[in-house]
Amino acid sequence: MWQRIIALAIKEFQALLRDPKSRFVIAGSPLIQLLVFSFAATFDLSNIPIAIYNQDGGQAAQALVARFEGSGHFKNVANIRRESDIARVIDAQKALMVLTIGPRFEADLRTNQPATVQLIIDGRNSNTAAIALSYANTLIADFNTHWQTSHQLRAPPSVIKTRAWFNPNLESRWFIVPGIVAILMLVVVMVVTALSVAREREQGTFDQLLVTPLRPVEILIGKAIPGFAIGLLEGSIIIFLAVNAFAVPFEGHLLTLYIGMGLFLLSAIGIGLMISALATTLQQAVLGVFLFLVPAIILSGFATPIANMPPFVQDLTLINPMRYFMIILRGIFLEGSSFQSLQNQFWPLALIGLVTLATARWLFRHRMN
Amino acid sequence: MTSHLVENDTDAIAIQGLHKSFGKAPHATQAVNNVSLHVPMGTVIGLIGPDGAGKTTLMRLMAGLLTPDAGSVQVLGVNVQKDPLTVQASIGYMPQHFGLYEDLTVQENLTLYADLQGVPFAQRPDRYQQLLTMTGLGAFTDRLAGRLSGGMKQKLGLACTLVRPPRLLLLDEPTVGVDPVSRRELWAIVYQLVKEDGMTVLLSTAYLDEAEHCDQVILLHEGQILGQDTPAAFTQHLAGRVFGAKRAQGLRRHLQAELKQHPHILDAVIDGDWVRVLLTEQASPPALPDGVWQPLPPRFEDAFVLMLHGQRTAQTPPALAPITPPHSEPTAHARPSEVIAVHALTRRFGAFIAVNTVSFSVQRGEIFGLLGANGAGKSTTFRMLCGLLPASSGALSVAGVDLFTAAAKARARIGYMAQKYALYEVLSVMQNLKFFARAYGLKGEHLSRRLAWALAEFDLGHYRDTNSGLLPLGFKQRLAMACALMHEPDILFLDEPTSGVDPIERRAFWGRINRLADQGVTIMITTHFMDEAEYCDRLVIMSQGRILAAGTPAAIRAQAQTEAAPNPSMEDAFIALITEPTQPMGAIA
Question: Quick check: A225 and A308 in contact, CB under 8 A?
Answer without folding.
Answer: no
